[in-house]
């Protein structure tokens, strides 16, 4: 199981990479394996400001649809458009080409509440 140590994680199986006041968000390797083959990623919150833990989109797999929860409060400033035509990137490269959104962080203190890679490993029993 791939759990990069340079990222932060949520109990809802999202990963977060922070660069200044912008966070890149996707779902973890564990989440994509649990979901199975991803066929659609929907994000209709572009240019909206959302609170931490609000739903920012959905990911649809062959067997299920799951909500995506925003790990940090802020404005959704970018959506990975390549997922519209190639949603399998979430399966093949969840921490790279499979990223989902970029968020302009409105409350940097929330970063402290995210899980470390070690905490996330403990959460999923890895």
TrEMBL record:
Cofactor note: Binds 1 lipoyl cofactor covalently.
Function: The glycine cleavage system catalyzes the degradation of glycine. The H protein shuttles the methylamine group of glycine from the P protein to the T protein.
The organism's taxonomic lineage, starting at the top: Bacteria, Pseudomonadati, Bacteroidota, Flavobacteriia, Flavobacteriales
SUPFAM superfamilies, per the entry: Single hybrid motif (SSF51230)
Pfam families cross-referenced by the UniProt entry: GCV_H
The Lipoyl-binding domain, residue ranges: 22-104
Similarity section: Belongs to the GcvH family.
Protein's name according to its UniProt entry: Glycine cleavage system H protein
Keywords (A to Z) from UniProt: Lipoyl
Coiled coil: none
PANTHER family referenced in this protein's UniProt entry, alphabetically: GLYCINE CLEAVAGE SYSTEM H PROTEIN (PTHR11715), GLYCINE CLEAVAGE SYSTEM H PROTEIN-RELATED (PTHR11715:SF3)
Domain of life: Bacteria
UniProt source species: Flavobacterium proteolyticum
Gene3D superfamilies in the cross-refs: 2.40.50.100
UniProt subunit comment: The glycine cleavage system is composed of four proteins: P, T, L and H.
Keyword Transit peptide: no
């Amino acid at each position: 199981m791939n759990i990069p140590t340079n990222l932060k994680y949520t109990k809802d199986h999202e990963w977060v990479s922070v660069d200044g006041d912008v966070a890149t968000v996707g779902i973890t390797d564990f989440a994509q394996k649990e979901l199975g083959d991803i066929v659609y990623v929907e994000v209709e919150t572009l240019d909206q400001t959302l609170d931490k833990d609000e739903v920012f989109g959905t990911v649809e797999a062959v067997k299920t649809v799951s909500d995506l929860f925003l790990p940090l409060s802020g404005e959704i400033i970018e959506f990975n458009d390549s997922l519209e035509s190639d949603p399998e990137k979430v399966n093949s490269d969840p921490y790279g080409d499979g990223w989902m959104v970029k968020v302009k962080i409105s409350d940097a203190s929330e970063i402290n509440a995210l899980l470390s890679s070690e905490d996330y490993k403990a959460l999923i029993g890895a």
